[in-house]
Specification:
Bound molecules: NADP nicotinamide-adenine-dinucleotide phosphate
Structural class: alpha/beta
Number of helices: 11
Largest sheet: 6 strands, parallel
Order of helices and strands: EHEHEHHEHEEHEEEHHEEHEEHH
Strand content: 5-15%
Length: 325
């Protein structure tokens, strides 16, 4: 049997990192190295270098990041830009210095300009101003793409470096964050409808008009995209990307309105009351959808429907709530 590459998953306890780990383990991969945040703070350059010297992985999935919703991004902009820049710079550079040939960096759809044409394609990057609320986070994610590209351009040939990036849309699934202020829309709705069901609230009010359209992808489908992109042969990858426009969007290619999403979550949770909308609260952009044609051309397909994904996610929410109570 050929020797399995040693794979380091940075952020393996997070929603995406744990899905990548599930995916690799399911395919029989046993040579995985991990460290929790408390064991290795990736903003600490010395500690990151020591870790790479000691472990010398062959591949790295960089799924560790400081992540949060609008409220968290608005409240802690300094932490979002500083920590994400430090994590990426430390991991990419230590990986290079310790012989890692393949690395996959995870970014986000917020790298695209606020007014990017919909659906947003990879070449919208750096064509206009970003959404101000998460600009610091987005700048750090853009820097992550450019770190990978710059290391490839300078060291690709001399050191056979091949560092790639994927930009996922909004993700949801097991291991999501249900913090009342820091969570994204699906976990926030699950938590809200669950609470209303338990308390027998006659109605739930959802922020905004319910009309904006957003795209959601189940996290295991994201993990399958990550493994696919990491393992593409160099020639195929290069045929579908350019050295200075190398990132690949990961999205299901379809959006739904927040109103439709609220209906779907209420149905999954079993909440039977009335859903109201509060149009006085901000809506954000009317539509945000990724163009996923690069990834689809590489053979990736969505596996999990929204209803199937919500069902697993709600089950996991209930397990998490039981564990923490
Ligand atoms: N969730 C989404 O909808 C979404 C959408 C687009 C892109 N992404 C991207 O996907 C990646 C993973 O996101 P996620 O949703 O899995 O986030 P997550 O659940 O918050 O996981 C992030 C992980 O990174 C770890 N981490 C954070 N700071 C660290 C540090 N300084 N040192 C070591 N570990 C650290 C966290 O550990 P602690 O929890 O202990 O801090 C956590 O395990 C991120 O790059 C994110 O930008 C996510």
């Amino acid at each position: 049997m050929p020797l399995q590459p040693k794979i380091y998953i940075a952020g393996h306890r997070g929603m995406v990192g744990s899905a990548i780990m599930r995916r690799l383990q399911l395919s029989g991969h046993g040579n995985i190295v991990t460290r929790s945040h408390s064991e290795l703070d990736l903003t600490d350059q010395r500690a990151v270098r020591d870790f790479f010297v000691a472990e010398r992985p062959d591949q790295v999935y960089l799924a560790a990041a400081k992540v949060g919703g609008i409220h968290a991004n608005n409240t802690y902009p300094a932490e979002f830009i500083f920590q994400n820049l430090m994590i990426e710079a430390n991991v990419v550079d230590a990986a290079f210095r310790n012989g890692v040939k393949k690395l996959l960096f995870l970014g986000s759809s917020c790298i695209y300009p606020k007014l990017a044409p919909q659906p947003m394609s990879e070449d919208s990057l750096l064509t206009g101003p970003l959404e101000p609320t998460n600009e610091p986070y987005a700048i750090a994610k853009i820097a992550g793409i450019k770190l990978c590209e710059s290391y490839n351009r300078q060291y690709g040939e001399s050191h056979q470096l091949d560092y790639r990036s994927v930009m996922p849309t909004n993700l949801y699934g097991p291991g999501d964050n249900y913090h009342p202020e820091n969570s994204h829309v699906i976990p926030a709705l699950i938590s809200r409808f669950h609470e209303a069901k338990i308390k027998k609230d006659p109605s739930v009010t959802v922020w905004g008009s319910g009309l904006p359209r957003r795209e959601f992808l189940y996290v295991d489908d994201m993990a399958s995209a990550c493994v696919l992109v990491m393992n593409l042969d160099k020639e195929t990858y290069q045929q579908h990307t350019q050295p200075m426009l190398s990132h690949i969007n990961v999205g299901c290619g379809e959006d739904i309105s927040i109103g439709e999403l609220a209906d779907a979550v209420a149905k999954t949770v079993g909440y039977k009351g009335v859903i109201n909308f509060d149009p006085d609260k901000p809506d954000g952009a009317p539509r945000k959808l990724m163009n996923n044609s690069r990834l689809v051309a590489l053979g990736w397909r969505v596996n999990t429907s929204l209803m199937a994904g919500l069902e697993v996610t709600y089950k996991n929410f209930l397990e998490q709530s039981t564990r923490s109570s």
